[in-house]
Amino acid sequence: MEKSERRQIPLAASLAGLRLIGAGAVLGLALAVPASPAQADPPRPPSTTQSEDAPES
User: Fold this and answer.
1) Model pTM greater than 0.85?
2) Phi/psi class of residue 32: alpha, beta or left (left: φ > 0; alpha: ψ in -120 to 50)?
3) Tens digits of per-residue pLDDT, 26-41?
C-alpha cells in the first residue's frame, strides 16, 4: 500500500475554516433554541374608582 501524500494547508486558510465552522455552530444553536415571547407589561386590575388625577365634578 502506498502512503497517501499530505498537503500542507496554510494557517490562514485553516483559521478561516474554523471561524466558518464556529459561525455555523452559533447560527445552528440560535435557530435550535425556541424564541421566547416578548415580555409584556403585567396585566393591571381594572380600576373601579375614579383616578386621583381626574377632576371631581
Assistant:
1) no
2) alpha
3) 999 888 877 666 666 6
